Amino acid sequence: MDIGGKADRAVVRDALGVGVAVGLSGFAFGVTSAGSGLTLLQTCALSLLVFTGASQFALVGALAAGGGPFTAAAGALFLGVRNAFYGLRLSQLLALPRAVRPFAAQWVIDETAAVALAQPTRRAARLGFVVTGLTLYLLWNLTTLLGALGAEAIGDTDAWGLDAAGPAVFLALLAPMLKSGTERAVAGLAVLLGLGLLPVLPAGVPVLLAALAAPAVLWADGRRRGRGDAR
């Protein structure tokens, strides 16, 4: 019985499933980006070079709301910082050759990290990382192009209700990550801060201030645990 081959096929199957499922949402990004005023070239460049969905949606969302480029970029950067922490863990797990690491870094995102970290061996982790990254990168960029072309063809995306596609996909990507009570509390407080400050602050700034939800909830959780230990 070829146990190793069977295990590899299972990793490839799971990696392809993640890559295809998430890669298709690049279409929504293409539509959203084109609808926010970015050109076809700018939209495709974001997917090719940035390649992290949450940051891309945050960037074009802030621009669409009237935010300045620096504010929009800052919000996207805040969301993208988590990938650096994934990279620290994956560098130890995958132990890729130095010459390959700069190229592999482009694929360090939520989905590739999740698939790689779920594997029992280094070989399986490498296979899962590569298959997920390759599938998602190719499909995300292809569907981004198709979405941007489609948005240009139909004209006003607001009239078709496609302006809601970006936020909807963003929430769909985020929801499965909220597993603990602390994570849900951070998300809830961030939503309250973002929506509450939206009418009184310039576009893009509420997103930045919503990032304060994480330290606030962690501080409150730490105090609660400290009181529990004191008893």
From TrEMBL:
InterPro entries in the cross-refs: Brnchd-chn_aa_trnsp_permease
Membrane topology: Multi-pass membrane protein
Compartments where located: Cell membrane
Keyword flag Signal: no
Biological process according to GO: L-valine transmembrane transport
One annotated Gene Ontology cellular component of this protein: plasma membrane
Top-level taxon of origin: Bacteria
Residues annotated as transmembrane: 15-32, 127-148, 160-178, 185-218
Entry keyword Transport: yes
One family name in Pfam for this protein: AzlC
UniProtKB keywords: Cell membrane, Membrane, Transmembrane, Transmembrane helix, Transport
UniProt similarity note: Belongs to the AzlC family.
Protein name: Branched-subunit amino acid permease
